[in-house]
Amino acid sequence: MSVHKKADGLFEVRWREGGRQKSVRIRGFDVAKKVQHKKLTRRDENRHLDVKKEINYKMSELINRYWTHYGSKKASADREKSIVEGIRSELGRKFVREVDGVAVQHWYENLTGKRGLAANTAVRHFNVMHHMMEKASTIWSKETGLERNPASLIEVDRPDDARERFLSEEELYRLKLALDERMFQKGTKVLNKTNLRMRLIVLIAVSTGMRSAEIHRLRWPDVLYSQGLLAVRARLKKGKVRYVPMSSELAEEIRHYPAVIDNDRIFPPKGGETSKRQRLEGSFEDLLDRAKIRDFWFHDLRHTFASWYMMNGGDLYELAKLLGHANIKMTERYAKLARKHIAKTGDTAKVIWSMLDKKVQQEDGDVANIA
Known about the structure:
Elements: E1 2-7, E2 10-17, E3 20-27, H1 29-44, H2 59-69, H3 77-91, H4 101-112, H5 119-136, H6 141-144, H7 159-162, H8 169-180, H9 193-208, H10 212-216, E4 223-224, E5 229-232, E6 242-245, H11 248-255, H12 282-290, H13 300-311, H14 316-323, H15 335-340, H16 348-356, H17 358-370
Antiparallel strand pairs: 1-2, 2-3, 4-5, 5-6
């Protein structure tokens, strides 16, 4: 579909409908663009799909194909499996060409409405739908009859994109106190394994900016003590690896964390390798309550690292590499933090650790002075 200038003020809108090329001449470029948009919208809503009626490719077939070629090969395959099955239960009986923008919109609204999913969770479901329909409308378009991804027509609310919550210096200190106070089972010197696991996961997140899924998939060989680095392999394609800095304080925490026998993963899934339980769940909420930290999500630990990195004179492009952002635009929201604070040099992780332990050091100094 296109708009062509024929003479001064005269434009021709061309489009394909019912297997034939059609056109109409319009006075005024703005009016011509509106007509083009209207024709394109009608086509995308399948009122005039340029496909033969005998193309009856079912959504259930598309889901199977997508899962075989893409979903099953992702690091988040366990989670993605439940998402595609949810799509199958609602749309599996339809033909792919019937799943237009209206159908996708209805499905998306049901995620937070009928199914009661959180906004962030609904976005993850939508991302899978968008990826699948993109393949259906490009490399598999001949089989499916789709010419354009209907999911691209949907406005999606992405809470994480606009959220800027990060921990203050005082909150970092309270977080560390709350983590330390339950290292042992109450009234004993026996390590509290549940809290110990959560403690290390939280410390890694806040001092490296790694995602939850990346932390849970860390293996002991990924800890490069001599280089002061952690190798992050999750979510990266073609065997690529990114590296994040590991401060000496974090290295000591990892070094003293007990390994599970016959398992090279630092945080093996609860219930075995095939288990889907990879989240901290209620224990993290309890930690926040004890630390008196409000309006905070686990993902905000990543924001905390990124925010303090920029407030300590960090480089935006280097931060994008550390966070594993594919597009610098995802990182640009942190740029304003650098302008609001005096630039400092030094290692961000060390700065965060110094804030975590700041008051502990002060109390030790007071004791020494009294003595």
